[in-house]
């Protein structure tokens, strides 16, 4: 798993690539939490994400809850496999998916 991130202080864009699971989600969380203060718009681009585990879902939910207090978060470019995981787990109702 790898991820790319841009942050201009107000807008943070995160592209998740590969697979997110309990082995690598902590690294993502730590890096995002260090920079989230002051961010009002957060976008997760999932076009290159092949798989997301429950640990990854928890991370997205945590970011969603945090952003509700300071701005907006959206998930974009969700492929069929990941969208199916969102549907089965009910995350389609919890996340702002465009």
Quick recap:
The protein is of the alpha/beta class.
Give the quaternary arrangement of the chains.
single chain
Instruction: List the uncertain runs.
Output: none
CATH superfamily: STAS domain
Helix count, DSSP H or I runs of 4 or more residues = 4
Residue-averaged pLDDT: 94
β content, as a range?
25-35%
- Termini separation comes to 23 Å
Percentage of residues in helical conformation: 40-55%
Going by CATH, the architecture would be: 2-Layer Sandwich
Shape: globular
Structural class: alpha/beta
Secondary-structure element sequence?
A: EEHEHEHH
CATH secondary-structure class: Alpha Beta
Computed over alpha carbons, the radius of gyration is 12 Å
State the total count of DSSP E strands.
Answer: 4
User: Any idea of the CATH topology?
Assistant: Transcription Regulator spoIIAA
Strand order of the largest sheet: 1-2-3-4
Number of domains: 1
Biggest sheet overview: 4 strands, mixed
């Amino acid at each position: 798993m790898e991820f790319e991130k841009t942050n201009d202080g107000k807008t943070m864009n995160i592209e998740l690539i590969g697979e997110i699971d309990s082995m690598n989600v902590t690294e993502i969380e730590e890096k995002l939490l260090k920079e989230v203060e002051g961010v009002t718009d957060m976008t997760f681009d999932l076009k290159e994400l092949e798989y997301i585990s429950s640990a990854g879902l928890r991370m997205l939910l945590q970011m969603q809850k945090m952003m509700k207090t300071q701005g907006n978060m959206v998930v974009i470019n969700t492929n069929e496999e990941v969208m199916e995981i969102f549907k089965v787990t009910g995350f389609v109702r919890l996340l702002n998916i465009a």
